[in-house]
Amino acid sequence: MLHARARRLRAALLALPLALIGLGVLIGALLQGPPAEAGPQGIHKIKHVVVIMQENRSFDSYFGTYPGADGIPMQNGVPTVCVPDAASHACIKPYHDTNNRNSGGPHDHDDAVGSINHGAMNGFIFRAREGLINACTSNVNDPRCSRTPGNPDVMGYHDWHEIPNYWAYAKNFVLQDHMFESDASWSLPMHLYMVSGWSAKCTTARDPSSCVAAVQAPGSPPGEPQNTTGAVPHYAWTDLTYLLHRAGVSWGYYVADGSEPDCADNKMLCKSVPQNAKTPGIWNPLPWFDTVKLDGQLGNIRSTGAFLKAARDGKLPSVSWVTPSEDVSEHPPALVTAGQAYVTHLINTVMSGPDWDSTAIFLAWDDWGGFYDHVAPPKVDEQGYGLRVPGLLISAYAKQGYIDHQTLSFDAYLKFIEDDFLGGARIDPKTDGRPDPRPNVRENARILGDLTKEFDFSQDPRRPLLLPLHPAFT
Q: Which of 10, 200, 309, 365 is 20 to 30 Å from the Cα of 256, by its Cα?
């Protein structure tokens, strides 16, 4: 019995240090509190999406000679492609254009169809000559006509000499070399697609069922050159802000004070229209969306100055769209350098602000502006895709020097925003609670790429790349 007691005492003594160690671990855990929650993962590291939309450049006109991109076909540095010009009886090859001011060409739906020419991609000069004749015959006293070259410049391309900042963004972040405009047409349908995934014409206010697809003429706000009757358009279908507002996700649409230059009906020149955040226009369509008005969200349409302040203060909304004024839009005849400086200022401001590490900036040009591109766009439906345009991703989590060869359109921005902030919900008549008769859900197109592949969310946030507003133009 004595031996049994001794054995129990010995076992208790041996267990004592283990108990004390366990007690120490417990006390330490209590002092440290509960384990820290993991931060946002993957796409959700992006808390702010900024879409900067410029004007009227094709991919080949800006990045056709960028190394590694699907650019202008070359052999020994000489283009192997050309476009016939009936006026000179020659086939014109792409050439390096060092001019700061361009003319471009007309860019409505008929021009898109004619330029593509069943995939031959050889109608650019014909459409440009026709557009120049039509424009300057009816606007002979317009000073812009005196600056218009006698021959079309749509075969010209720029490179790092003229647009060094854009090439620097491509080198340090992501270049998208198969970004296509969503609609084979001009600015207004493109900006409608940018915020809603559709361009349509509606006959009745607040009645989405009255809307039908409109590749060219969805109805322009009063005061626009395209609106000859003064009728108020009804954008009655569903846009992304409806889903964002319902989910409590903040958004802002920012408009530069100034003017807008675009015009339809195969014209390259028309009277400029005053523009600010309070004036609906071809670059500012949201004020005419029923959803925006009914949700009381008109106040979210603000000046570019409000965007810059929000970026400086670290108060960017979850989703921002930023549109230019005519003088900084790069829409011919605006100076290329003026547009590059404006875009650089926007990006530098975001990079210098508290939100940089959690922001994705998508930069694109809304249509091809008549300029040559050699890639035939894939057909998704009766409205698109349109011609190829430049596209860039700039973010602290962007892969460095990555060229994304996926097929993309502006619908990819909607898809990324929906995946990031809305749990993958789509602007879909079957699920969004507000049916409209859109023929398809563009975000779900099988051909559409996934923008998350342009990010490396495992890397530490990249440092800002602050660039000069006015680099040397060589």
A: 200
